[in-house]
Amino acid sequence: MFKTHSSHTQEDFFSSVNLLPEEKREKLKASAQWSFYNIVFCHIDENLFSDLYSEKASRPNAPINVMVGSLILKHHFGWSFEQLFNHIDFDLLTRAALGLNSLSYSPFAPSTIFDFQRRVFEHHLETGNNLFEQVFDAMTKDQLKELGLKTSIQRTDSVLIASNIRDYSRLQLIIEVLLRVYRILSDADKHTVKEFLAPYLKHTSGQYCYRLERDAVPHELELLGTIYHTLIQQFRPAYGDSEIFAVFERVYTEHFSVADKTVTLIPATDLSGTILQSPDDPDATYRVKRGESSKGYVLNAVETAHPDNPINLVVDVCVEPNTTDDSVILTKRIEKLTDKTPDLDELHSDASYGSEANDKALEEAGITHIQTAVKGRKAAVHMAFAATGEKQWDVTCPKQTVKSEPTKKRCKASFNLDVCGTCPFAQQCPAQEQKRCRTLYFTPEDVARNARHRNILEIPPERRTLRSNVEATIREFVLRLDGHTISVRGHCKTAFFAFQRAASINFGRIFRHQCALNT
Hints:
Layout: H1 22-29, H2 32-39, H3 64-77, H4 81-90, H5 92-97, H6 110-127, H7 131-147, E1 153-162, H8 170-184, H9 187-193, H10 198-201, H11 205-211, H12 217-239, H13 243-255, E2 256-259, E3 262-265, E4 285-289, E5 292-304, E6 314-321, H14 326-340, E7 346-349, H15 356-365, E8 368-371, E9 384-389, E10 392-396, E11 401-406, E12 411-416, H16 417-420, E13 432-433, E14 437-442, H17 444-454, H18 470-477, H19 491-518
Parallel strand pairs: 1-7, 7-8
Antiparallel strand pairs: 1-5, 2-3, 4-5, 5-6, 9-10, 10-11, 11-12, 12-14, 13-14
């Protein structure tokens, strides 16, 4: 049965805080943990989680604000669960942060918080709603209002986060999935294939690969293709609904092809980064960025960036497979960004966020996209476009301005050859020289791209470097991750981490700001 927890708001004369000497009580109230109680804990809306529990009269749930607050504290200080439980049991500062006034009160058992996370996970799978995201959004909305922060200017960046999975070779992955399928078979079915699979059943997938000569790997992969094909034909009717069998079939289709009843291995060069990386995390994908490979996800964060703000807060976070381009992430988040911060009118990013789809979506939302760098070769001659009608522009080069004309598929601007002959940039000009003029062909998408590239020149110089500070925010997300590797697996759980960590980052900034004001 769902029940909110509000006892922390009731004054207790015999609370652990009131029993402290005055000097220590003042020291406690100056701590980060005491501020956490006011900044974070008191803004956790427990009602968001009511659907996780029965409406019937029964044993009430453990205090949700304590469990959610505990998870945020865990990420803020980089604790393991064992350290978190010890702090809750024996640390007065941690108990103060979570509104636990009595030392004799235990808010939950370790198994309870794990069950709570399972419920949130299953709710997300069933409904698509991330309850930790809703907590973060509501909390951040309150914080922005209380601090009076301006949200009209924001900046964004992303970082690769590796899943907590084993680094399988192609051969080992195929054998590992084969062994896992064997384990789910009935005793009778195991008996029918035991001799067939005998060489693999004697060892783990790693041990089998270790004993194999390198020259034997290609033949081994071809043999495994035949084994996969045989087992799928034999066991799909009985085990097709099994989760691991679905993974088994996925591996088969990703690594093998069938033509004329012959199973062949798909060349490694034809494999994409979206193929299965581990049976323990079917959502993880593979990507190489700046020479570094990663198997997992990409975390994208957006924060306020107005120069008038005394501090800036993270306002949006999302997690996608790491093969997702930054521009695609932005396309997906524009609507959410405008819902959260309706006054957003200037977004700073690097070049990877630019695309025709975003040009259109941001223009419709009234948001100016400021890029600090541009993909591709830098134009030697800058062209400016000023709209004069539907698919009509005044096109300006360094020497002249002409009106564009529509063609069947594009538009064109014809420049005077006599003027072009005196231009020092004539050799680098993108316009094509013809008998009577120089002609520049372009599309409306080219105009939008040109405007995006020139936007940074239209704002004051002091705002042209706003994007760079978001890189420090991105480092905060991965600060305590060994090799950018998260301690959980799966897209959903990685997203939980992202929002809990974002809440802790915002708390740290607000606390430091308050300390600066009090000094």
